[in-house]
Design goal:
- The strands form two sheets. Strands 1, 2, 3, 4, 5, 6, 9, 10, 11 and 12 form a ten-stranded mixed β-sheet that branches. A two-stranded antiparallel sheet has the order 7-8.
- 11% of the residues lie in helices and 32% in strands.
- The mean pLDDT is 92.
- It has three helices and twelve strands; from the N terminus they run ββββαββββββαββα.
- It starts with a strand and ends in a 16-residue tail after the last helix.
- It is mostly beta strands and 231 residues long.
C-alpha cells in the first residue's frame, strides 16, 4: 500500500492512510502503519507518531508528529476541539433532508458474544456531528460529516442511529460486506484536516482526494469540493 504525503514540514506529516491499513499490529498479524514508520522519517532521526486514530477501514488524513513537543501540542488541539475535521461517508439509503446536526450522546457496551460497540445513551458522553447530503447514486448517498466531538465510532453510530442509515459496508452498525453493492470496507474517508498552530505559524491544512472505491460506486470528486484555500 502506498502512503501518499498530503502535508509535510519540520514538525508534522499528514498522510493519506489507505483503507484497510490498521495503525497497530493486528492480533492475527499482517501489515500495519506501525511497521512503516521508518519509511516516514524522510531524513529525520525520529519516527513520526500518530496524533489521533483512524479505524482500520477508514481512509484519508492522518496527522503524525515528528517530535514529542509537537505531539503534545497537536494532541491538546484535538482535546480542545480546535481541529477541523471533514469526512465523506457513503450510507446505504436515501433520505429527504439536505443537511442537519446529530446530537446523540454515546456510551460503550460490551458482551462476550458480540464484543464491544458504541450505542446512543442518555447518560453517555456528548457527541455532535454536522452533516450535509452531497450526491445520490443508485440508492446510496454520499454525505459530508463534520464532527464537533471525537468519540469512538461517532460518525458510524450517528449515521446508523441519527440518519437512520448505516455506512455502507459497516460490519458492526450495518450489514458489513453482505450488501448488493459489495463494499469491502466501511465506506468512510477522512477528507480534510485543519490544525491550528497558534502565533504566526500557519495551520496544518490537508485534503485527501476521494478514494477509488467511492468513485467506483458512481460518486464524483466534484460532488465533494474540498476546503483547501487558494494559494
Amino acid at each position: 500500500m502506498e502512503l501518499d504525503i498530503l502535508f509535510e514540514d519540520g514538525e508534522a506529516l499528514v498522510i493519506d492512510k489507505p483503507g484497510g491499513l490498521p495503525l497497530d499490529q493486528p492480533r492475527a498479524g499482517g501489515p500495519c502503519l506501525e511497521d512503516r514508520l521508518d519509511e516516514l522519517k524522510l531524513g529525520f532521526q525520529r519516527q513520526p507518531f500518530p496524533v489521533h486514530r483512524l479505524d482500520r477501514d477508514t481512509s484519508g488524513c492522518l496527522l503524525l508528529a515528528r517530535n514529542p513537543k509537537a505531539l503534545k501540542r497537536y494532541s491538546a488541539a484535538f482535546e480542545e476541539r480546535t481541529v477541523e475535521k471533514r469526512y465523506l461517508g457513503v450510507v446505504a439509503g436515501e433520505f429527504a433532508d439536505d443537511e442537519g446536526t446529530i446530537d446523540l450522546a454515546l456510551s460503550k457496551i460490551s458482551s462476550i458474544t458480540e464484543g464491544w460497540r458504541m450505542i446512543p445513551a442518555r447518560k453517555g458522553k456528548p457527541s455532535v456531528t454536522h452533516w450535509r447530503k452531497l450526491e445520490v447514486q443508485g440508492g446510496l448517498t454520499l454525505v459530508e460529516f463534520r464532527p464537533e466531538t471525537g468519540r469512538t465510532h461517532q460518525i458510524r453510530v450517528h449515521a446508523a442511529s441519527g440518519l437512520g442509515f448505516a455506512l455502507l459496508g459497516d460490519p458492526i452498525y450495518g450489514d458489513g460486506a453482505d450488501t448488493p453493492h459489495g463494499a469491502r470496507r466501511t465506506m468512510l474517508h477522512a477528507a480534510g484536516l485543519t490544525v491550528p498552530r497558534g502565533g504566526d505559524k500557519a495551520p496544518i491544512v490537508a485534503v485527501a482526494p476521494m478514494p477509488a472505491d467511492f468513485v467506483a460506486l458512481g460518486f464524483t470528486p466534484e460532488a465533494a469540493p474540498d476546503d483547501e484555500p487558494d494559494e
